[in-house]
Write a structure and sequence with these properties.
The complex is a heterodimer of chains A (143) and B (376).
Chain A lengths: L1 E9 L8 H8 L3 E8 L6 E9 L1 H13 L3 E3 L5 E3 L9 H5 L5 E3 L6 E3 L9 H5 L5 E3 H6 L4
Antiparallel strand pairs in A: 1-3, 1-4, 2-3, 5-8, 6-7
Chain B lengths: L4 H10 L4 E3 H11 L1 H7 L2 E3 L2 E4 L4 E5 L11 E4 L2 E3 L7 E5 L14 H9 L4 E6 L10 E2 L2 E2 L6 E9 L6 E3 L7 E3 L2 E3 L5 E4 L7 H4 L11 E4 L2 E8 L22 E6 L8 E6 L3 E9 L1 E3 L3 H7 L7 E6 L13 E4 H6 L1 E4 L2 E7 L3 H17 L13
Classes of the chains: A alpha+beta (143), B alpha+beta (376).
The complex binds iron/sulfur cluster (2 copies).
């Protein structure tokens, strides 16, 4: 069993297509919808966490792709710059998914993106600018 | 068993001093007893690394031609205080570039940039008088070009502090203790506990005016008691204050400090500040000092305070007590529920500073200085 967070983009033509129920019923993938904005007249976006055997998830994702759903991986939503990290642990204390953790012996923070649910709480809690949204990072908003 | 400051200093010079960190002292006293720990150890090192809002730099830029008496000044767009003699400026860590609301860049970041060798843009204005005819200047400079740059922190090293929670509001609160989630879903604390300088010398027997310290990666001094210093706060039987108590006024030469230990921080919804790394070496003069320095996280109480209504409204109410052992475990129990804890102070950073100071004393490159007056 693996868990994977995915960002799904629904172009207008497939907003009314019941892809998610096919993912659950047809493929047997557990789908936990974390955030969604879908309006039948527009495009939709959905952040979801999928759980199931790896091949099953892969098959489910190819099915989505074939039906026109755009898939991206939330790795790209923010960047952890370890060199700027002071290991205060604030991100680990607030991260709801266990993606940021603090080692009980060394008190150093570690990061494993695979569990991330993209809630963005860590971006806010990091005072040191070590976790930046990609936009800020690319835009170089920090001097 | 007693030892004097002079004996300890001699040992440092001879290279025979026994120095361990406050964490190691806690472990040593727990397995060998305080008396034996006192016999073996001369000096205990402490550390803390945390945002400390009451920090800033006093700069002297050197004079301009023609002479200019700064009346208003901005450093990288961040307002500095110019109500001093001609070319002196004070830049506070929480001064913000955008004065209309919480900003991303401010005094703390300018200080970090300066100490990292970056070039700073100054805009200064004067009235133009007979002896100081200049009206404005816009030079750029780096730290080395300044006549003086003195870190001048009027309130650092708070001896213990609140644990912040959101008990009553349904919204996320954006505070200087970070985001506080509704319904008591998290608790934020900011203290190095058993590694913290003033919690290892709770009655200020060895830390006083004139103590030499590790400050921002360089050397500094305790110059006075800090603002809001409150030695009369309630204490445990072991002498540990049960909430905010002592504070220290710290000063040191910015030249020689490092951006590793002076970091600008920006706190969403609140503003900007400076995280400061501070370390102090405590001489084990007698068994009482050995007992003080062997304090463990579990023996240091911390008050839990609501930041949705009680703190802003000055109600003085404390929701409950916890201790740093529990806080550092990641979870505390509040009103019968488990609440996750968030640390703002870096324990890894505090530990690194205590280790570094230990190594400096072992090498003889850091000498303890006996205070010339107590801070209480
Ligand atoms: S909050 Fe920022 S500085 Fe603190 S441990 Fe996390 S990434 Fe590092
Ligand atoms: S966005 Fe940050 S806080 Fe939220 S789950 Fe991912 S790593 Fe954790």
């Amino acid at each position: 069993m693996v868990s994977r967070s995915v960002m799904l983009g629904f172009p207008r033509k497939c907003v009314s297509d019941p892809v998610i129920s096919d993912l659950v019923k047809g493929c047997g993938i557990e789908v936990n919808i974390l955030r969604a904005r879908i309006d039948p007249s527009e495009e939709g976006r959905m952040l979801a966490r999928l759980r199931g055997p790896e091949e099953v998830i892969e098959n489910g994702l190819s099915m989505l792709r074939e039906r026109g759903v755009e898939i991206s991986y939330p790795e790209s939503s923010f960047i952890w710059q370890e060199a700027r990290c002071v290991h205060c642990g604030a991100c680990a204390g607030i991260c709801p998914s266990g993606a940021f953790t603090i080692c009980p012996e060394t008190f150093m923070v570690g990061f494993d993106m695979s569990g991330c649910i993209l809630c963005d709480l860590c971006i806010e809690v990091c005072y040191y600018g070590a976790i930046q949204s990609v936009e800020d990072y690319i835009g170089g908003c920090r001097k | 068993m007693k030892r004097t400051w002079e004996e300890i200093d001699e040992k440092i010079q001879r290279g025979s001093v026994v120095v361990i960190t406050a964490e190691e002292m806690t472990d040593l006293a727990a397995c060998r007893g305080v008396r034996e720990a006192c016999r073996r150890v001369d000096v205990v090192t402490t550390g803390t690394f945390s945002p400390m809002c009451s920090s800033g730099v006093l700069l002297n830029t050197g004079h301009h031609t023609p002479r200019l008496n700064y009346r208003q000044a901005w450093l990288d767009g961040v307002p500095a205080y110019a109500g001093l003699a001609a070319v002196d400026l004070y830049l506070g860590a929480t001064s913000q570039r955008d004065e209309t609301g919480p900003s991303e860049y401010g005094g703390g970041h300018v200080i970090e940039k300066l100490v990292a060798g970056g070039s700073i843009h100054l805009r200064a204005e004067g009235h133009g008088t007979d002896c100081y005819p200049g009206r404005s200047a816009e030079p750029r400079f780096i730290l080395d070009e300044l006549k003086d740059a003195i870190l001048l922190n009027p309130r650092n090293c708070y001896q213990n502090y609140n644990v912040a929670v959101n008990a009553y509001s349904e919204k996320i609160l954006h505070t200087y203790m970070g985001p506080l989630l509704p319904d008591l879903r998290n608790a934020a604390y900011s203290c190095a506990g058993q590694l913290s300088p003033l919690l290892n010398d709770p009655e200020y027997r060895t830390i006083g005016i004139g103590s030499r310290i590790f400050l921002g990666g360089g050397e500094g001094y305790v110059t006075f008691r800090g603002t809001q210093h409150c030695p009369d706060a309630e204490r445990t039987r072991g002498g540990v204050p049960t909430g905010g108590a002592g504070t220290l006024f710290l000063t040191g030469d910015l030249k020689g400090m490092s951006p590793e230990y002076l970091r600008g921080v920006s706190i969403r919804g609140y503003g900007v500040s400076l995280a400061v790394g501070v370390g102090m070496a405590i001489p084990v003069l007698d068994e009482e000092m050995a007992r003080f320095t062997s304090v463990s996280d579990g023996e240091i109480p911390a008050p839990v305070v609501d930041y949705s209504a009680d703190y802003p409204g000055m109600s003085g109410r404390v929701l409950g007590m916890t201790d740093y052992g529990e806080l550092r475990s990641g979870e505390i129990i509040l009103r019968g529920r488990k609440v996750r804890t968030v640390s703002l102070s870096s324990y890894a950073g505090a530990r690194k500073i205590s280790e570094k100071l230990k190594a400096m004393i072992n090498r003889g490159s850091f000498r303890l200085a006996k205070p010339s007056a107590p801070i209480s």
